[in-house]
Amino acid sequence: MNIDQDECKNLYTNFSGVDMYVDYRNKRLKILSHSLLSELIIKEIIDYSKKENLGKIIANCYKQDLSLFEECGFVAEGVIDGFFQGEDATCMSLFLDTKRKNSLYEEKENRIIDYCVKNTNKFELTKNKNYTIRQAVPDDIPQIIQLFQTAFETYPTPIFSREYLQKVMQDHILYMVAEEEGKIISIASADLDKQHMNAEITDCATYPKYRGRNILSELIFQLETHLKRNGFATAYSLSRANNLGINRSLSKLGYMYRGRLINNCHICGGFEDMNIWVKTLK
Predict the structure, then answer these.
(1) Which residues form the signal peptide (predicted)?
(2) What is the pTM for the complete model shown?
């Protein structure tokens, strides 16, 4: 799969009044709106997805729509508490590609979660640190891209693109960076859903030589401070299920493990499972 070419085709579209995001980069379709959904429309969306050679359909679902999705073959992979302005969302998935149903690393990923849940160490702010934390600005974008290129072979969103980063930085993503001696050494972001008052903690990366210093946890803590100040109800993160560091950071910060999205997105050269972590901010 040519990721760059596929990214160019990604689109938001409307199908029989239902808003959708067709994500060729990750070979999936996301159902974004629910009010006009019916079994007939969902089946039409499934047929469309098959024609487009997509392997997975996903939706964050209201409680009252659960049975409709289940009747159409969807399965629940997790929950994001408080996603809809305080009301919980169930993460529903339909696997069109049967190979995509099964995790390749389930045992390892379960061990990581078991370790994180049992490890009761809590986050504490670092004293006398050599780095400073601040909100990113457009002038930081060349350094941000360099960090992302070091951390990720491929990524679910076009974070290696200057134009993309400029657009989302102005629009709906808050980036926080750690800087040491003029160099950005770590980054994390909050993707702001102002309609539902939730935010996804994402785009987390640290240069290898700076890992193990609690930097990422501090970045996320500062993002949470901004979210609380602006009235957001919920923060959540979809973290790489086979990466101990990010899962441990979220657990230490008080996020609760709420499920796993199997083969959910294309990152570092292949499809990976993503753990759902949720924290109530209000």
Answers:
(1) none
(2) 0.93
Token pair belonging to 240: 């790489």
Amino acid in position 116: C
Report the alpha-carbon distance of residue 115 to residue 248 in Å, rounded. Answer: 8
> Cα(45)–Cα(201) distance, rounded to whole angstroms?
29
Give the pair of three-digit tokens for residue 157.
């969103």
Max intra-chain CA distance, the chain: 60
CA–CA gap between residue 172 and residue 122 (Å, rounded): 30
Cα(94)–Cα(128) distance, rounded to whole angstroms? 49
The full set of domains in the chain, from first to last, is 3-101 (3.40.630.30), 106-280 (3.40.630.30)
Q: CA-CA distance, 188 to 215, in Å (whole number)?
A: 10
CB neighbours of residue 121 within 10 Å:
8
- Residue 80: strand, helix, or coil: strand
Q: Which residues pair with 229 in a beta bridge?
A: none
Question: Counting every residue, how long is the chain?
Answer: 282
Tokens matching residue 165: 């980063």
In whole angstroms, what is the distance from residue 3 CA to residue 238 CA? 20
Helical H segments across 158-279, by residue range: 162-171, 215-229, 244-252
Bridge partners of residue 188, in order along the sequence: 176
